[in-house]
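Re-running Trichome birefringence-like N-terminal domain-containing protein to confirm reproducibility after the cluster update. Everything else is unchanged from the original entry.
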Amino acid sequence: MGLGGRRGLSLVGFPLLIPLGVFLALALDGNKLSSMAAAVRCDLFRGRWVMDPSYPLYNNSASCPFIEREFSCIHNGRSDLLYTHYRWQPLSCNLSRFNGQAFLEKLRGKTVMFVGDSLSRNQWRSLTCMLHSSVRPAPRFNITREGDVSTFTFTDYGVRIMLDRNVFLVDLVKQGAAGRILKLDSIQLGGKLWLNTDFLIFNTWHWWNRRGPAQPWDYIEVGKKLYKDMDRMVAFETALRTWGRWVDLNIDPSKSTVFFQGISPSHYNGTLWGEPEAKSCIGQKEPLPGSTYPGGLPPAVGVLKSVLRNISKPVTLLDVTNLSLLRKDGHPSIYGLGGRTGIDCSHWCLAGVPDTWNEILYNLIL
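Result of re-run:
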């Protein structure tokens, strides 16, 4: 679509709106215009993992003492550290290395809020570690929690990095004898918390296929009708469209920047990455080579991208699925909260893969 179209130029498939005066100024400077065009063409999410001894960006215990035990793989006994030394390399450009001082200055007085499930917590904790460890002397901070909202404040900068635990984005309420109702067409509870936030990073997916005792609802409600169950992919899409309408109705792009974290993958089936004998991520020590995951993308990715295309307000997808699929080595496995009795191939060790999600976020914001 041309400059006169609704969405303007696109960066990684999403909006990059350039004011006319800025575009004309760029047009007078061929070098700047060429640089802008190269940035627009660059796909930050298509690339490969390369060994880089200068990584990780922080030590998980010495420089980030507040990592939750479920993500602290080294503390839990993981001795192979090769997985911490990989850097994401896009195929057609370079990522700027994370600079915590520059990020805190950019965000001075602002709020970043992650909204979603424990994968959002994984990314939230990663970002707080990256910021805390990259500034010397270490910046002063405090951590508070009220209900489902956790706030990490860098007091010297007035920067708040928040987490709202909201696994479906849409409302989940207790309603009399009916019990717990998942309302696919309602966002009343969480939506009030998200207003007037400078940067919002949303996420939902991993809870949509919970069944049995792990299923957190008794009924699903759509259009005032209750269902005992329904196709989970349909439910996921319906909820995303409700969230998309909330964005269109409530977000002022001049005040708030919206991201969607994307679909973080799991590794419980080695057949999908070419090792049929592997029944989980246990013992995996290296990423897959190249840029393509043999098993392809999860269907949820297509559903998410379809919904995002129909949102009028700017939303940038942190399209982390493929780059994370290549990291079968990056999960806690037996070095998570449950140890050998609760093999974790869904979350990610810290330091680790979510640091790259945040390094990409840093490049998009700065």
